[in-house]
Specification:
CATH class: Alpha Beta
Shape: globular
Oligomer: single chain
Distance between the termini: 14 Å
Strand order of the largest sheet: 3-4-2-1-5-6-7-11
Number of domains: 1
Number of strands: 14
Strand content: 15-25%
CATH superfamily: NAD(P)-binding Rossmann-like Domain
Length: 324
């Protein structure tokens, strides 16, 4: 490992300090937080943001157990509406969903049924009288390459269910008078990633560490990367300002070849980059054409992680999680 990389890693954080500051500043002294899907990537990020607050926090997952999150131990509980009601939550951070790579594992009918059950549990949570605001994660797949809700569920089960959840939560927010934010994640980074082979950035980091990084895409691929904790912190801030809003993750535009070059420069400068030869025309433009993110940066004097810091923080988390 180069001296330059060692010096940069020393500056890396598992969480963006600006996100931690913004997160803490938008929690109320009497808040009581429930985090669903707490053992996953987004849930672990939210749970670790909560550590410094000292506020009561109930973590939910598929079954009750203790789990390790990069050196910290958390207790998670299976969904029990009576236990949750007794806890009297004021804020719901919803990170629970069965992702698309598990469709074959579950089988399509069971995959749909289980995610619908998860969504119904979320409706129960948000409807509790003590709850004042909520954040629920969605995905760019809900609206890209078109509104997934306008198609058939069999064509895009994950995107269809996410889009339906967005619309249902918007309606629920107004019906029960709860402030809500849909945190629509497009391309994100973060130390608490749990399935690094499923995402381009983390796969690039793993490949670079092993000495050869291959870009499979045969056409230009453009993305905008932001840290999960930045999306969470900005979303929490928005719950104090808006009755309901969809906040898309954004970030600087980058093509995969340039992303690969930056990853290699930071992780393993001796790694070789290869790419599948062009086979067709066109581009893959999976990112949000919105500007709310940059507006919030200015309004809140918020400093999101730049791409270099995102790569380094994610690399550090992957090392600690023994993915490298």
């Amino acid at each position: 490992m180069s001296l330059q990389l060692i010096q940069q890693i020393k500056k890396a954080h598992l969480l963006n300090p600006s996100s931690q500051t913004l997160w803490d500043s938008h929690l109320q002294p009497d808040d009581r937080i429930v985090i669903t899907g707490a053992s996953g990537w987004f849930g672990q990020t939210a749970a670790n943001l909560m550590l410094k607050s000292g506020l009561p926090c109930l973590l939910l997952a598929s079954h009750t157990r203790n789990f390790n999150s990069l050196g910290k131990t958390f207790e998670v509980h299976k969904f029990d509406i009576d236990q949750i009601r007794s806890f009297s939550p004021t804020v719901i951070i919803d990170c629970a969903f069965i992702t698309r790579e598990r469709i074959n594992e579950y089988g399509l009918p069971n995959y749909i049924n289980q995610n619908q059950k998860i969504q119904q549990q979320l409706v129960e949570l948000i409807s509790l009288p003590t709850v004042k605001r909520f954040i629920s994660f969605s995905s760019g797949a809900a609206v890209f390459p078109q509104d997934a809700g306008l198609g058939e569920i069999e064509d895009n089960p994950y995107g269809f269910l996410k889009r339906k959840a967005e619309l249902d939560l918007q309606k629920l927010s107004f019906e029960v008078n709860k402030r809500g934010v849909i945190a629509r994640a497009w391309s994100v980074s973060g130390a608490y990633v749990t399935k690094p082979k499923s995402f381009a950035l983390t796969d690039f980091i793993s490949q670079a560490a092993n000495g050869v990084l291959h870009i499979k895409a045969s056409i230009p691929v453009f993305r905008r990367y932001s840290a999960v904790e930045d999306l969470l912190a900005l979303s929490l801030a928005e719950t104090e300002k808006s009755s309901f809003i969809v906040l898309n993750s954004e970030g600087p535009l980058i093509e995969m070849a340039e992303l690969a070059r930056q990853v290699v420069a930071l992780i393993n400068p001796s790694a070789v980059i290869t790419r599948t030869k062009p086979a067709q025309k066109g581009t893959d433009n999976y990112f949000a054409n919105t500007h709310r993110w940059s507006e919030l940066e200015r309004e809140l004097s918020f400093d999101p992680l730049d791409l270099t810091s995102q790569i380094l923080n994610t690399f550090e988390g992957m090392k600690m999680g023994e993915y490298l």
